[in-house]
Amino acid sequence: MVKNVTNLSRSGLNDWMLQRVSAIILAAYTLFIGGYLLSTPEVDYQQWNSLFEQTWVRVFTLLTILSIAVHAWIGMWTVTTDYLNSRALGGKSVLVRFPVQLVCFVAVFSYVVWGIQILWGH
Amino acid sequence: MTSSTESSLVVSVYCYNPEIDKKPYMKDYTVAIPGGKDLMVLDVLNLIKEQDTGLAYRRSCREGVCGSDGVNINGTNALACVTPLSEVMGGKKKLVLRPLPGLPVIRDLVVDMSLFYKQYEKIKPFLINETPEPAIERLQSPEEREKLDGLYECILCACCSTACPSFWWNPDKFVGPSGLLQAYRFLADSRDTATEERLADLDDPFSVFRCRGIMNCVAVCPKGLNPTKAIGHIRQMLFSSAS
Q: Total domain count for chain A?
C-alpha cells in the first residue's frame, strides 16, 4: 500500500470510480447544452435566463461543476505525481509539486463557489 | 535477411561502462551475417562479442524461457533470443540495440532490475493458505486450474514493465504490468485464501491505478500475455468487493 495525503479520496479505487462517474456526467451535460444550442436557433438573454430559471437545470449544472472539480483534481493530481516527482525533479520535488497542487486546489474551489454564485446568486 | 549469400549488417549498440565512460554513447559494429538462415538478434550480439569481448549483455537459455536477454531492439522491447532479424529489420539498414528503458544501466545492455523485483516482491508472489495442509497436495478442478492460464507463464523478463510510461515515472510506487499480472495470478488461484489482504494492499492510487491502459505491455510481451486484461480483472475485483 502506497501512502498519499493529497489525492482526493485516499483510495485509488474511489478516485478511479469518481473519475469515470464524473466523466459520464460531463458527457451528459455536454450533450444537453449542445443539444439545446443546436435546437434553439437564436439564443437571447430571455431564453438563456428562462433555461436556468428551472431548478433541475441548476441542479444539473451544479452537479456538472462539481464533476469538473472532482475530475480536474484527480487528473491534475495524477499529472503532478507523474511529471513533478522525484524522478523528474530530484529529491526536493515536493517543493514544486505541493505548491502546484495547492494552486490547482484553490482554482478548483474558486470555480465551484463562483459557479454556485452564478447559478443562485440572483 | 535470409539471402543465400553472406551479407553485412551495421549494428548500433548502446555502450556505457561507468568506470571509464563519462556518459553513454552509441557504437557501430559491422557484422557479417551468414547466408541461408535467419539469425536471432542474440546470435548477432554473440557475433559482435567475438569482435568486442568487452560488450556486456545478459543471456542464458537462448530460447525464450529464462527471460535474461530482454533488450530494446529498434525501439521495441523484446527477447533477443527469440526475435528473428527478419522481423525487426523490415527494410531498415541498421539494427539499433539499447538496454531496457527506465531502469538504471549497470553496463552496456545490462540494467539494474532491483526496482522491478521489488515490485514483484510487493505482491507476495506465493500461495497464502492458512487452512491445514492436506496429506498430499491442495487439489484444483480443471476449471479452477484453467483460470491461471495466461498468467503463470510470465518469465519476469521485464519487457512489459520497462515499456510502460507509468512504470518509468513511478517505478517505486506503481507495481507495473508484470507484477500486476502475477498479483492477479494469485488472486485468481482457488488455493489462495489471502484475497482480501492482497486487494487491500493494492487499493491505493499508485499500485494498480496508475495503469492508463495504453497496452504497451500487451504489444511487447514475448510470451503473448495480456497484463492489461489482468489489471482490468483486479479493478473489477476491487470494485465488486468495495461497492
A: 1
Q: Return the CATH number at A22.
A: 1.20.1300.10
Show pLDDT as tens, one digit a residue, over chain B (243 residues).
456 788 899 999 999 999 999 999 999 999 999 988 899 999 999 999 999 999 999 999 999 999 999 999 999 999 999 999 999 998 888 999 999 999 999 999 999 999 999 999 999 999 999 999 999 999 999 999 999 999 999 999 999 999 999 999 999 999 999 999 999 999 999 999 999 999 999 999 999 999 999 999 999 999 999 999 999 999 999 999 887
**Residue A76 located in a structural domain:** yes
Q: Domain containing A84: what range?
A: 12-120
**Domain for residue A87, yes or no?**
yes
Q: Please report whether residue A45 resides in a domain.
A: yes
Who's near B97: CB < 8 A, 6+ residues apart? B11, B12, B13, B14, B41, B45, B71, B72, B73, B80, B109
ipTM given for this complex:
0.84
Residues of B in contact with A23 (CB under 8 A): none
Are residues A1 and B203 in contact, defined by beta-carbon separation less than 8 angstroms? yes
Q: Does a structural domain hold residue A3?
A: no
**Per CB distance under 8 Å, which residues of A are interface residues toward B?**
1-4, 7, 11-13, 15-17, 77-78, 81-83, 85, 87-88
All residues of chain A having their beta carbon less than 8 Å from the beta carbon of residue B239 are 13, 17
Query: B207 vs A12: CB contact, 8 Å cut-off?
Result: yes
